Amino acid sequence: MTGNETRDLLLTAADLSYKEFNDRIANWDASLSIGVRVPKIREIAALVVKNGWEEYLEDMGRLYAQGAPLYHEEHMLWGMVIGKAKMDREQRVRHLDLWIPGILSWGDCDCSVSGFKFMKKDQEFWYGYCTRWLEGGREFEVRFALVALMQYFINDEYIGRVLPLFAGEKASSSSDTPYYIRMAQAWALSVCFVKYRYLTWEVFASRTLDPWVQNKAIQKCRESYRISEEDKELLKSLKI
Asked: Are 213 and 184 in contact (CB under 8 A)?
């Protein structure tokens, strides 16, 4: 399949009422969105994987290199195919290296990364791969790294390494830090609290986080169904 063929599929699946709604919540350039629901994009991704993902990924890489503008849904589809297709590690890195710098929005990032189940294997390699995207400081590259680390590395082996990263060890937080980086940090810290309560409590209690990140993380904890009412009340005392 080619990039033009998949664009036609996406355009055919457009839902204008959904586009209006999604443009508001996604906070992106509405002129670069089609209005395709995420389950439909996943369905098209599965079709691409079944019918020639190699040609498709090479085509998308060429289009991106040429500076061709992509719709948000096109870029999301590209990421989903990278996640779904069976390929070796070197191939996946090559395609991710092209895809990540072009991430267009938080939705593009998060919906694609949720399908990167390959990171559950060979974790030391993928941990290193993700963390190097923290260094550049570009908003959605850093968000990619934080969301991927949150999805696949909050576990017994890596919690001691990822918790400081979410707290800002590399993706430092301040009022000047882009919004979607700080939101990813807060989200990841709330997940850490669910899974590693005492370790994350110590981070909150130290009050060394950026105040906005700490308060947003606590808000997310208090909104979670996986945290007890008692802990939700105790967390109030840790707001800055």
From this structure: no
- Residue recorded with tokens 């559950």: 120
The residues, any chain, with a CB within 8 Å of residue 144's CB and separated by 6 or more, are 100, 103, 109, 113, 130, 133
Q: Which helix (H) or strand (E) holds 76?
A: helix 72-84
Render each residue's pLDDT in the chain as its tens digit; 240 residues.
899 999 999 999 999 999 998 888 877 777 789 999 999 999 999 999 999 899 999 999 998 888 888 999 999 999 999 999 999 999 999 999 999 999 999 999 999 999 999 999 999 999 999 999 998 879 999 999 999 999 999 999 999 999 999 998 665 555 688 999 999 999 999 999 999 999 999 999 999 999 999 999 999 999 999 999 999 999 999 999
What is d(CA 10, CA 81) in angstroms, rounded to the nearest whole number?
14
Tell me the C-alpha to C-alpha distance, in Å, between residue 134 and each of 36, 112, 131, 162, 205.
Answer: 30, 18, 5, 12, 25
In three-state secondary structure terms, 207 is coil
The encoded tokens of residue 219 equal 């808000």
Alpha helices (H) in 167-210, listed in sequence order: 179-195, 197-206
- Say if residue 91 is exposed, middle or buried (CB neighbours under 10 Å; 0-12, 13-18, 19+): middle
In angstroms, rounded to a whole number, what is the distance separating the alpha carbons of residues 24 and 2?
A: 30
- Residues 231 and 221: beta-carbon distance below 8 Å: yes
